[in-house]
Amino acid sequence: MKIKLIILFALASMFFVGCKNPGVVELSPGVYTLAREDHGGIFGNPSALKAGVIRDANAFAERQGKVAIPISTKAHPVGVLGDWASFEYVFKLVDTNSPEAQGIGGFNVTETVVPPTGTQLRPEGFTETQFRPVSNSRSESSKPHDNPSFSGTGFFITDDGYLISNFHVVKDATKVRLLTNAGLIDAKVVQVDAANDLALLKSGGRFKPLAIAASRTVALGGTVATVGFPDIGLQGFAPKLAKGEIASLSGAGDDPRYFQISVPVQPGNSGGALVDERGNVIGIVSAKLDALTALAASGALPENVNYAIKSSFLLSFLESVPDVSAKLKAPNAADEKFEDVVKSAQDAAVLVLVY
Fold this sequence. Notes:
- By secondary structure, this protein is an alpha+beta fold.
- It has helices at residues 2-15, 46-63, 118-121, 167-170, 232-235, 291-298, 311-318, 322-325, 338-348; strands at residues 19-20, 24-28, 31-38, 66-76, 85-95, 131-133, 150-156, 162-165, 176-180, 183-193, 198-203, 223-228, 240-248, 258-261, 273-275, 281-289, 306-310, 349-354.
- The protein contains 9 helices and 18 strands.
- The strands form 3 sheets. Strands 6, 12, 13, 14, 15, 16 and 17 form a 7-stranded antiparallel beta sheet that branches. It has a 6-stranded antiparallel beta barrel with strand order 7-8-11-10-9-18. Strands 1, 2, 3, 4 and 5 form a 5-stranded antiparallel beta sheet that branches.
């Protein structure tokens, strides 16, 4: 009889519906945790539990005029005898105009979706705000021709000054300048492909260009790298190297125009060349999965989920400018030392400043 009572208690525990809510707890100045249990047992909804905790944390921050920035999460599945499913969310509060609130360093964010055809990029069930450009975003307080309002990366494709960046880096620009080894020089936008987030620019001078190879031969797991200018407000103006692999031969929602890459890119890397082990451009760094939106949707923070436009689309774009396509370097046919690949990428990379 005693055994039967224990079994009945266990079953009753699993079917009991309710939710424990101890409220937000301050762990240290500015750092908080919100943990919640779902007493729904086998009828509980872990996804709803996670979404509810994150929603309430955001509401808590909003009431104080702040923004909640995720630090860590911990999920526990349902067990038996009162071992409920739970979700713990640790976050910190920052000012709404803080660079951290925008996912960037040193600039304000007014744009969060890349590419412009975002509906084709995002997977089923996610919103457009899931994706952020990996370029430092525009500051509405900046005045034209005073301070740059936007920054990104570009790379030379001809020795007489033609270069490539992302369309979202230069759109609405009244002036574009490049930071090169020779100092600041002016550049102009020659042609754009907004649908594929590409922009062709021209500056004066002589430069060391990169060769572009068709992306159709790229294999899953291939080693790739990029040299760019991320977070210049925090990290400075020196070029930064990032290395990784081809994580998928298609982008979000199986978009065939993109590679998914494990290269750790940040705001400011937009428009950078993605080079292979031969030093050829096989993609253009473009976008990354938005951490806050992905966390709200799945309860987990994405790690190195980034995207690059395939070089085959760049080559097709350049065919519309015969004077430029005729000057492109032939792709390298043999592997190079990684140090040489990095040196070539660094020589071709420039900081793009938009006014």
